[in-house]
Amino acid sequence: MEDLGDHKEHKNCKILKSEEVWNHFRQDNAKALGILYDRYVDDLYHYGQRITKDQELIKDCIQDLFVDIWEKRKKFPEVHSMKFYLFKGLKRKIIRKLIRNRKLPIDKNILEEYNFEIIFSCESELITRQISEHQQKQLLQSLNKLPRRQKEAITLKFLDEFSYKEVAAILSMSVKSTYHLIYRALGKLKENFPKVITFILLNSPF
Amino acid sequence: MIKYQDFELVDFVLDESFQQWVLSPTQASDDFWKSWIAQNPERKKIIDQAKAIIKGIDYKKLSLSGPDKASILDNINARIKTGELKEELSIYNDDVLSDYDDVEETVIYSLRTKRKSIWSRYPVAAIFIGVIIIAGIWFFSNYFMSPPTDTSMAYLERSNPSGIKSTIRLEDGTVIKLNAESKLTVPPRFSEKERKVALVGEAYFEVAEDEKRPFIVTSGNISTIVLGTAFNVRAYPDENNIEVAVANGKVVVKNTDLSGKGQKSDSLILLPDEMAVYSKSQLATRKSGFDFMKVFAWKDDVIYFKDANVYEILETLEKWYGVTFIINRALNENKDFTVSYRNKPLKAVLEGLSFVFVFEFDINGKVITIN
């Protein structure tokens, strides 16, 4: 399992590592807050949409998150992965707010009321070259039938490129069960690619 | 690496080192996988599919617009400033922080929604808490005070900028609350005959009793002499009057002006609820009553306005919060307003005022624009 600190998260930002920005930030450099914000606001906003469909609530939570980390900046000695830290913080805020806004009694499964839709990135030519449209459709169908949590795990893993350890921490579960969660979710692949040695597919689930 | 021989598509997709190679390849992983594929050409198709799936997974989402992004950041910055004010205030009065958090909630709420709607949720009455006294207007800058002349020892100085108040405890047990834009000078050690401090600006004194050593506050031409009592001295350089008001005990106020003009060596004895007002223009001191809240509210972190017009109020807020207002349009001067605020963030105060005096405001750091 890779260490949290090894996580590659800033492909486009070679100038200053996020953790260095964070250090400036801890030393009261208000500018650093703007840099962190610019760097992560899109990712955070997108991540929020995997938890709730309420766009305004996500924006509010992003606000709260940055105000919070500014106010608490001195209490955090070191942050290994800024992105991980922010994602986890955002998720906690969204859940709290969802629970607070809820008129009904608190329900543990508040997050399962909502689900987002997995797609294959349209920019990825790779996928259209490698997997037939039919297979893609079937794969997406079965992926989208998964509970939100499993989909969250898959996207955190492949799209946000977190390590299993980090995904586990964001989902508040053990690394082992996170692995199994993703494994189960992707087990669907097996159904859709039954022993694809030749891919002139006999691809009927019936 | 024998383990990969038996891998099927899903195993590759799930394998962390495979994922790492696909998502962020390194020289080493690239070398490894390329040679593995070269040795297992029949697996290339599966590898490519696994790569495609790992790279292709995405989800339906909206993106933030540029203006949305900018306005969230603006709100963050505004709230950070408010938070810093809160921090400063908490230095003096930790026990009100819990009340304060509720106010903070209000502020957060209002930052995020159309301002109008706040009134439907928070009745106006809740904002106008107080029923107390008059407006104090303060503006000025710090001038250096004339140093006391009776010693050459190094004096200790405490100087507050606008927006900051502080509490000072002296060696004899006297507690002094120093207002914003004010300066107190204290000798390193009091002499055996007297306890002498110098003040520019405003301070509230709770003097520890010591019958043998009178406590003396010099402020310009006025010396206030006490044995043990609580009183307020207001002596801002750009105000015409110096005011000494007594909460309890007995105070002697002495005019030490030796220029020969005006009354000389007049001294007044003040009892509780009495105030001495020295006019710099007339060089004369007179005794009067005073409004307790107007004089003493500040020491308890209460901003108090009575029948104050909007300009008086904004000037006071500038000093209290250490901010500057840029006023871009004429405001209704004929309207009087009475209110008190205890430890409220500026934003919350302005929400109330903007409703009463009908203006819009924009907080940008320490500068507030009124439109």
UniProtKB/TrEMBL annotation, chain A:
<comment type="similarity">
    <text>Belongs to the sigma-70 factor family. ECF subfamily.</text>
</comment>
<keyword id="KW-0805">Transcription regulation</keyword>
<dbReference type="Pfam" id="PF04542">
    <property type="entry name" value="Sigma70_r2"/>
</dbReference>
<keyword id="KW-0731">Sigma factor</keyword>
<dbReference type="InterPro" id="IPR013325">
    <property type="entry name" value="RNA_pol_sigma_r2"/>
</dbReference>
<dbReference type="InterPro" id="IPR013324">
    <property type="entry name" value="RNA_pol_sigma_r3/r4-like"/>
</dbReference>
<dbReference type="Pfam" id="PF08281">
    <property type="entry name" value="Sigma70_r4_2"/>
</dbReference>
<dbReference type="InterPro" id="IPR014284">
    <property type="entry name" value="RNA_pol_sigma-70_dom"/>
</dbReference>
<keyword id="KW-0804">Transcription</keyword>
<dbReference type="InterPro" id="IPR036388">
    <property type="entry name" value="WH-like_DNA-bd_sf"/>
</dbReference>
<protein>
    <submittedName>
        <fullName>Sigma-70 family RNA polymerase sigma factor</fullName>
    </submittedName>
</protein>
<feature type="domain" description="RNA polymerase sigma factor 70 region 4 type 2">
    <location>
        <begin position="137"/>
        <end position="189"/>
    </location>
</feature>
<feature type="domain" description="RNA polymerase sigma-70 region 2">
    <location>
        <begin position="36"/>
        <end position="102"/>
    </location>
</feature>
<dbReference type="InterPro" id="IPR039425">
    <property type="entry name" value="RNA_pol_sigma-70-like"/>
</dbReference>
<dbReference type="InterPro" id="IPR007627">
    <property type="entry name" value="RNA_pol_sigma70_r2"/>
</dbReference>
<dbReference type="InterPro" id="IPR013249">
    <property type="entry name" value="RNA_pol_sigma70_r4_t2"/>
</dbReference>
Automatic annotation (TrEMBL), chain B:
<dbReference type="InterPro" id="IPR032508">
    <property type="entry name" value="FecR_C"/>
</dbReference>
<feature type="transmembrane region" description="Helical">
    <location>
        <begin position="122"/>
        <end position="145"/>
    </location>
</feature>
<keyword id="KW-0472">Membrane</keyword>
<keyword id="KW-0812">Transmembrane</keyword>
<dbReference type="InterPro" id="IPR006860">
    <property type="entry name" value="FecR"/>
</dbReference>
<dbReference type="Pfam" id="PF04773">
    <property type="entry name" value="FecR"/>
</dbReference>
<dbReference type="InterPro" id="IPR012373">
    <property type="entry name" value="Ferrdict_sens_TM"/>
</dbReference>
<keyword id="KW-1133">Transmembrane helix</keyword>
<dbReference type="Pfam" id="PF16344">
    <property type="entry name" value="FecR_C"/>
</dbReference>
<protein>
    <submittedName>
        <fullName>FecR domain-containing protein</fullName>
    </submittedName>
</protein>
<feature type="domain" description="FecR protein">
    <location>
        <begin position="165"/>
        <end position="251"/>
    </location>
</feature>
<feature type="domain" description="Protein FecR C-terminal">
    <location>
        <begin position="303"/>
        <end position="370"/>
    </location>
</feature>
